[in-house]
Amino acid sequence: MENNLVNSTDNKKVSFHTLGCRLNFSETGTISQGFVDRGYEIVEFGEQADVTFINTCTVTDAADSTCRNLIRKAYKASPDGKIVVAGCYAQMDAPKIAKMTGVDLVLGTSEKYKVFDYLNEEETDAIHIDKSVDFYGAATSSVDGHTRSFLKIQDGCNYVCSFCIIPFARGRSKAVTIESAITEAKKLLSQGFKEIVLTGVNIGEYESTSGEKLSDLVKELLALDGLERLRLASVEPNTITDELLEVMKSSPKFLDHFHIPLQSGDDTILTNMRRKYSVDDYKRIINKIITAFPNAGIGADIICGFPGETDENFQNTFNLVKELPITHFHVFPYSKRKNTMAGKMDDHIQHPVKKQRVKTLIMLGDAKLNMFTEDQVGSNSEVLFERENKEGYWEGYTTNFVRVFVKSSQNLKNQIINVQLTEFKDNKLYGELIN
């Protein structure tokens, strides 16, 4: 690689595109700040840029395909710029990516944080993959224009779910210290963020080097002056302990919104997926959450068409998510991943069947979310406002993660205001400010 892009940044531009999970967005935020600190201007992806950074996902074949399309788009926009492809897909299939026209650097899940070192080198190999997948500190990222931010507290996973490739891409579980997380949180609060979202690959397995658990970290964060909202991005059902629930419900700062992956509502499929809970276990956890937070918004990941999933297995999943107070469905067709146990199983489901099952659950999820949203009418909720839209409505989120639209001539950005929820119309919830 020729020319030094980092130490000579006059009028240099960088663009980013992030695929996949909240953790990826958190990490991109950290890396983008590094470019800004070095004098780069961030431009929209697809515009001409000196460096284009693509942070990838490899959960599904579709994610891999999307990444390749983004590389082509980046090269078309900036044929003379540098294209950096990083993250999970890069970790798993670096040689294939490196052969694509325009790709200058392929950086794995650990190496992506060294992007500035590699851009500084006059000559360097295209591929940099560390198979040990080390952990890189607490990462932060603004997610909505400086009102709330992700805080990365954990990476990697020790589970061996038969469908999942992420442990291969990110390695074993590792966590930041509580001291490091608190330091990063204080930085975010000093920058004006009102809400912090804890993120990682499997944050329920958070354990610091001194043995402290997620409940200990949450307790410390809730005690911070200036923090107004705290929630978890996603937490495995088997890791939600009574102690963690007690800590969460002990403070009004902790929001009544949860994301609890389900994957399947059938015990046979859960066993074949090598998940760490049964249907009854999942029901108990959801009921405990609703007991502690009666108006909670609850999201769940669901995989359709896992190998061997019969019509009866799928119907059991449908019946379960219809019965439980799950309000936000994240539905995916099963995607065969290389080197996973599920990928070697027999009886793979045909694509049209998977597609129909996904459609069926999405329709149910949309209906349940609309019902949940409409049920909020007549109540009051604190709303963190993010932006004013083109129609003159301010948009924000309630504590249980329902989007609200409010008309106001005031600048409401990054303010938490009590709102009376007055009307559900055209799948939108409207409200009025309470003086």
In short:
With 435 residues, the chain is of the alpha/beta class.
Describe this structure in words.
- There is one protein chain.
- This protein has 435 residues and is an alpha/beta fold.
- It has four domains: 13-128, Methylthiotransferase, N-terminal domain (Rossmann fold, 3-Layer(aba) Sandwich), CATH 3.40.50; 135-255, Transcription Regulator spoIIAA; 280-375, Transcription Regulator spoIIAA, CATH 3.30.750; 380-433, OB fold (Dihydrolipoamide Acetyltransferase, E2P) (Beta Barrel).
- It has 13 helices and 20 strands.
- The termini are far apart.
Tell me the overall shape: globular
Strand line-up across the major sheet: 2-1-3-4-5-6
Structural class based on helices, strands and sheet pairing: alpha/beta
Q: What low-confidence regions span 5 or more consecutive residues with pLDDT below 50?
A: none
Helix content: 25-40%
CATH class of the largest domain: Alpha Beta
Residue share in β-strands: 15-25%
The total of helices stands at 13
Largest sheet: 6 strands, parallel
Query: What is the number of independent domains?
Result: 4
CATH architecture of the largest domain: 2-Layer Sandwich
Tell me the distance between the termini. 60 Å
Number of strands: 20
Average pLDDT level: 91
Descriptive key words:
435 residues, alpha/beta, Transcription Regulator spoIIAA, 4 domains, six-stranded parallel β-sheet, five-stranded mixed β-barrel, 20 strands
